[in-house]
Structures are given as structure tokens and as C-alpha cells.
Amino acid sequence: MPLKSKHLLGLDGMSREDITLILDTAVSFREVLERPIKKVPPLQGKTVANMFFENSTRTRLSFELAERRLSADVLAFQATGSSVSKGETLKDTARNIEAMKVDMVVMRHSAAGAPHYLVRVIDANVINAGDGGHEHPTQALLDMYTIREKLGRLEGLHVCIVGDIAHSRVARSNIYGLRTMGARVSVCGPATMIPRDIERLGVDVYHHIDDVLPTVDALNVLRIQMERDAGRLFPTLREYHNFYGVTRQRLEKAGRAITILHPGPINRDVEISADVADSEHSVILQQVLNGVAVRMAVLYLLSSRN
């Protein structure tokens, strides 16, 4: 069955049925990635344009690999060196690319809401690969897939998102998706990094990480987004690590098995210690692999609407 929407712009308002459909479909594509021949033909003859107006490594490469694994033709666009630097608008850039008979557009942009604007000016399917501080839906989907793969379910679990919540589109999409799937969601960080009134999203707020660890099943650890001036929200990186860093000592003190996720890139020994990032608790590399399968599922399900 196809998704209810023609686009994937965010998880806010997405139904439990659609999220489950994506996660279940990703299971099949995860199996494909384990085969000697990792390519299947569902998008053969389709063209996907990756429009990245912000720097990206994991997300851009993951989408490109997912598209190629599905046999799509891939058109890579980066704002640096393009006509955007000459003053071309987003609308004109997108419509010129669509005029080349592009079927789907994957876009990352620094402006919140940019993908929502894009669907009003082009007819192609649009997938949000991160828009400002708003949402990053495929990252949240792969996080949920990884938790479900590791712990067998999402409903009833306690997941805590730790770190720079104020600047994080990953946190918002995870909150929307996990709560829809029946998980309890908490956020933890300095008061300066927690948005005011975030409790309205149905989350519990902690300011001391040691208070939440005894009840949590999974920690999603976020980096400090220095490029968005997050460094001015606390005194020093060392102090942040002392109060909020996920360390082996803290995990052992909690006295329970806690699954550790991180969307990357990792700042080792800041938000997470190096030994924890590489430990048996960590599923960070599984997230990277699962991201390809989840994005294959999203591309496949959206293309089936056409």
C-alpha cells in the first residue's frame, strides 16, 4: 500500500499506520542490503534530484546510495557553485530541475519550511532531508527502526533525547514519531538548551542526566551544534561533558542495559565518551546502515503513489 501523502515533509501529524508501513517496508530492504547483489529495480526509469543547500555527509550519501540501490537515476545538486550564488531563487532552481523530467526531489535547506514551500511550486514528490531547526523525518524514522530492531518494540519504551534540543530538528521529529508509536519521550539538557514550553509536545523534561538514566531504555545523544552558536549556551565543553556527557561510569551506575543512539557527527568526549560510542551499548553504526534501508522504503512507497 502507498503512503497517504504524496510527500514526506515531517512526522508531525503522520499516522501510526504510515510510520509502521515505512518501518515494516524497511525490513525487506534491510535484507536486500545483506545480499551479494544489493540492487533491485523498483525505481528503474525514475530520476531523483538531491538538492542540498546545507552541508551533509551521512544523509546525502545515504539517500544517494538508497536511490542507486533502487535503480533510480540520480541528479546531485549542491548550492555551492550553482546559480543560487548568482541570485537564483529556490522556486526557479527547483522548477528548472523539474523541467529536466525529475520525478522526485530530496531537499535539505537551512530555512525551516522550505520543503513545504517546494510542494507548492513543483509537482514532483518531495522528501525533507532536514529543514533548518524544524524537522528531519528520515533520521527519526531510522532511529525508530534501530530501536525497534534492537529492543523489539517501540510502544511502552522510555526514550530520552539528550543535549542541544533547542537547535535540533532530529529531536523534534523523534518526539513526534516516538509519541505516535506509543513510546514515552523525555528530553534532557541545560535549561538554556531546552525550548520553552516543550512540555506541550508531551515530553518530560530533565536537567540532570543521572535522574533519567535509571528508567530509560534508550538514549538518543545529540551533538552540540556549534555552527548554530550553541556554544554560547554553556560555559565550556569540559563542563558540559561533566554534567551531561554519556560515560561508561554513568551507564554502569544506572544499573540497566541502555541502548545508545547518535545521529552524528559525534563529538567524542563531549556529549559522549569515546569508549561508550564504540561499546556494546552503541547502535550508532547500525543507524547508518538502517538509514539506507529506511530511505529506500520511503522512496519506494512514495513512488508507488505515482
What does this protein look like?
The structure is a single chain. The protein starts with 15 loop residues before the first helix and ends with a helix. It has helices spanning 16-32, 58-69, 90-98, 114-118, 137-151, 169-180, 209-212, 237-244, 248-254, 274-277, 284-304, and strands at 47-52, 73-78, 104-109, 125-131, 158-162, 184-188, 204-206, 218-221, 259-261. By secondary structure, it is of the alpha/beta class. It is globular. Helices cover 37% and strands 15% of the residues. α1 (16-32) packs across α11 (284-304) and α5 (137-151) packs across α11 (284-304).
- Quaternary state of the chains: single chain
Strand adjacency order, main sheet:
7-6-5-8-9
Can you tell me the overall shape? globular
Radius of gyration: 19 Å
Question: What's the pLDDT, averaged over the residues?
Answer: 93
Quick description:
The protein is α/β, with parallel strands linked by helices. Helix content is 37%, strand content 15%. The longest helix has 21 residues, at 284-304.
Q: Features of this protein?
A:
306 residues, alpha/beta, five-stranded parallel sheet
Please render the helix and strand layout as text.
Layout: H1 16-32, E1 47-52, H2 58-69, E2 73-78, H3 90-98, E3 104-109, H4 114-118, E4 125-131, H5 137-151, E5 158-162, H6 169-180, E6 184-188, E7 204-206, H7 209-212, E8 218-221, H8 237-244, H9 248-254, E9 259-261, H10 274-277, H11 284-304
Parallel strand pairs: 1-2, 1-3, 3-4, 5-6, 5-8, 6-7, 8-9
Helix pairs in contact: 1-5, 1-11, 2-11, 5-6, 5-11
